[in-house]
Amino acid sequence: MSNFDAFADFRMDGHVAIVTGGAQNIGEAIAKTFSGAGAKVMIADLNGEKAQATAAALQAETGNEVLGIGCNVTIEEDIQQCVAKTVEAFGGISTLVNNVGWGKSYDDPLDVPLEEMIESYKLNTLSAMRMTAACRPYLLEAENATITNSGSLVGVLPAFDFIAYSAAKAALNHMMLGLAHYFAKQVRINTVLIGTVITEGYAAAGLDEKAQYALAHSDNLTGRAGKPQDIANAFLWLASPAGSWVSGQTLQVSGGGKRVRLKPE
């Protein structure tokens, strides 16, 4: 019987990860997967109580240390506190997941208030830069240091009904690519372009049940909407030693996107 472990490079023993927006949905799946792979995880979420409850549940399930903290990633003081608490608890940081993101839908993209465009940029783009800056001293000391970002398929495809969100995610793609080149040989940086994954966030963004059903049965190559675990699996590959030769990339995880055909079926 072979002693070769094909999954050894996907282990994250000895790693310390911060997952923003990790209390539920995709962020929770990422935190759970990293913890299950052996990492110590800090869940940073706007809802501090939810972050702590999720952390306790994941620790009980995986047997590895998971903590939760309330953190508004648009506020510098919260970011610094999150980083300090993580280092205090776990001794360092090797893995940053910039998962936070949200957008609101508008029928007319020119109706989006300027203030909302700016706030979307702060939340979906600048928060990742500020978290990166705060974690930099610890990432530079870590082995296999990584930053992996939750991007969106609408950051590369037209989405006029989510213009503020899509523009901010497009900016995230380009900004993090620039940082990947800046941190070359020191920190690997990648972004996952996430397709349709139905969560309660869709309702909050203004999509009714009919719209959510249409998305869930979207005309992509796999014929289904994504699950949070589909995204978490991609994050594990990029953040673990298994992805050690991957940096400066935008990885599309979207079921293959839309099928294109000239004639209707």
UniProtKB/TrEMBL annotation:
Origin: domain of life: Bacteria
PROSITE patterns: ADH_SHORT (PS00061)
EC number: 1.1.1.159
InterPro entries named among the record's database cross-references: NAD(P)-bd_dom_sf, Sc_DH/Rdtase_CS, SDR_fam
One of the Pfam families matching this protein, by short name: adh_short_C2
MF-aspect GO terms: cholate 7-alpha-dehydrogenase (NAD+) activity
Keywords: Oxidoreductase
Enzyme class, spelled out: oxidoreductase
Family under the similarity heading: Belongs to the short-chain dehydrogenases/reductases (SDR) family.
Protein name: 7-alpha-hydroxysteroid dehydrogenase
